[in-house]
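Hey L., structure's done. Input below.
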Amino acid sequence: MNALFFSGYSGLATHINDALNKIGINTILLTTNASKRTNNPKTIKLYYTFSNRLDWYVKALRSFCYRHLYLNTKYKYQYYQDINENADYFNIEHIKSKINIVPDYIFILFDYRLLTTGSVKKLYDYYKVPIIWILVDMKPMTGGCSYSFDCTNYQIDCNPCPAISSSRHNGFACKTLEKKIKNLKDVDLKIITSSLEQYVQVSSSAVFKNYKKYKFFFPNNSELFCIQDKSIARQKLGLDINKKIIFFGAASFEMPRKGFKFLKEALLSLAKDDCSNILLLVAGKIPEDILNDIEIPKKMLGLVNMETLANAYQASDLFVCSSIADSGPTMVNQSIMCGTPVAAFEIGVCGDVIINGKTGMLVKLGDSEGLYRGIRYLLDLNEEQQDEVRKNCYEMSLRMKKEELIENIFTVLSD
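Output:
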């Protein structure tokens, strides 16, 4: 069984691709930005020639200028949309020249600056095989927004669009949505979501509501993200064995959807308590001075690899996720797999895996005081209660494994 897998180069994409190959699906990952460090023959760049690379950059520049100068989009919504949904970044001939298989299936993960729905239609018309779209955000089902927040216009026609500030060009999202619906109309398409919230969004979206849809957890490396002795994990990171450790992290805290504002408010409330025995463990890209007014001891890890990330979960007493719009976050799954409870808002996968008092604390969206209380509750657990929570997290991790994408992919393919 052969398959093409289109995605921007990422840890999730390579993990899914490797996992598919391990279970006997001969999958080739086609990407736009695989780094030189990869020697994986199952990963192929789509732009090697100068002319093709130049064309890609021209399209990317035009798209950037169009979004920011012409449409004047709001950063909050992460409005990433190509100028023309019918355009190709890579035509069929170029794709064919890079592969030596005839696919039985086509998978899509990250489509940004790689595929438009026009490209998807052409791929389907040429190969005539089912297309499985694994959603990581809302962009494929909207007029351009990666996250809609409280806007539900994607369910009808994306008109008006809160992400576009230009009143003169506000109808652009509506036209884009119409093109998506038209392009995908006759495509044999299956949609995979990673949370109940996302499944509901897909079921009500104008683009995807009429297609077969499934809900599975994203796969994670269960050999890496697993329960480990806390003292060993702390030793690896040079952390005090006697401290209560609160872990949080993000690739970038500047994105409004990451909700850092609410996290900071919760931590400021926590700082009013006796925090002499508490340590904040922070991973990701964050200016250290932003946390200066939070008078709690801190250790900044910076950007970390997967092994260090797993150690951080395993070393901590709890993980805090302050995202206010997300289809994951995958970090929530990873933390629970490591036996570490999570305090988080009611978004994305949090509602699927966090059970109050069992595997963490689920808090009303945007309630920073509620987030503080959730953190405080998990910090105050005694040793016996901590052991019970860790056991609950382990049981949830078994459920996640049973209900993950790779474990159920043949069900999707044969349905």
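The chain has a mean pLDDT of 91. The chain has 14 helices and 13 strands.

-- N.
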